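Fold this sequence, please.
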Amino acid sequence: MAARRPSRTHRTLTRIGIVGLLAAMVAASCAAQPSKAASGFSGTRALADVRKLVAIGPRVAGTPGAAKARDYITEQLKAAGLAVQEQAFDASTPRGSVHMINLLAVIPGIPPPEAPSQVPVQRLIVAGHYDTKLFKEFTFVGANDGGSSAALLVELARALKPRAKTFRDALRPAAFALFADDAYEFDTSAVEKNLRANQGLGLGLLREIKPRLSGLATWTPESVTELLETFAREKSMPNAGGIAQPLRVALTGSSVSPGLGETMAVLGKESTLRRLDRCLSQ
């Protein structure tokens, strides 16, 4: 039987597949207090990866530049303790047939103990491309194209690998990201404890923090964490957990999630504000 060639998008992008990396958001922290980025996903390391990839120059699929990018990504994933597989294929492109190579790094999941042995382990795939688009008119190095997407996946792999005990346990707190802003459910006990208790103290804090979040110009795990810590100091809280838990429940429906800075960065500013409005309107 002939092997099936990988499916292609309209642009036939070379992809990096890292199984289960959505759960990497959990790797940063499941604690109430916002974690420092250095303890999980590091934007500094990811930016360093972008710089390394951009320094290679154009990385058009099928060229030496793409091969150098592939070597760098493979080196970083192996350093994180992951085995890397290559999946080669020939793609039909406007330039003719181009030899392309996917990179796959797999973090195995562990099925629930109650699951029958014949039940396959569920998988999630987070993928991106490490090549750059070909431009004849100018030199295109794709810092915010193949560079940032590849760097994101490499850093997610670093964050997840040492922390994910089981696929199921790692995924559960990150499930909020799979739902639309108006579709995730609220845990009743979490709402009562963190939002409505003490005469609605948590809801009041959310109303106070929302304008500050709306005015935050730079939306990163670090900037969000700094804002929350500043707010906590102004309120004479012992730590940022006093505002983090109400926010966590409002944004995810649960009292357990990844580090709040990472959670809000994944959701993005617009989604975060929409979720806050939804929570406050109920």
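Residues 1-39 have pLDDT under 50 and may be disordered. The first strand starts at residue 15 and ends at 19.
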